[in-house]
Amino acid sequence: MRNILLAIAATAITFTATAQDFDKVDKSPMDAAYYPANATKRAFAKTDEQKAALQPQIRVLYGRPSLNGREVFRSSDDRNAGITKYGDKWRIGANESTEIMLMQNAVIGGKNLMAGRYTMVVVPQENEWTVHINSENDGWGNFSHNAALDVVTTTIPVTRVDESLENLSMALYAPNEDNVVHLKMGWGTYRAELPITVEL
Questions:
Q1: What is the mean pLDDT of the chain?
Q2: Which of 20, 35, 51, 153 could be joined to 45 by an S-S link, Cβ 3.0–4.6 Å?
């Protein structure tokens, strides 16, 4: 009987300790962008054709930091001038490395990519961003980025708009009736798009 009581007490202590180990709510929550945008709601489709059309093709997981009165980029070493520096590697998000998952083969920056999980790192400049797609996953930010594992490096234009986004945001959409999906990225007044050709 004593052994049973000790076992119950040990279980209760373990559960209490585990329950207290939950992380606090992060200031930069993780979010997901899908193509098609309503892919996660395909169970509500009324026909098999509609359900098939909503099968996910691309997913991006990323942390969503807030500006909180700051500028996105800085050109100097003054950390008060902006969140990240032009010319430095940036996870294009917060916390864990930004992940792009291709559910089928695709072409990015003229390079063929097999379906699978990859991470994204951006090197921003004032008028363009260099995007690195990397085969290493489950890292923190860009600190584990190994350029030798880049499978794609491509440069995309960046524009400025009037409307400012408080939180970094991403969306996947196809502007034309073809198999080119655009990963739209925006924060503050900066906007950039990475075209992804999905192999149908």
A1: 88
A2: 51
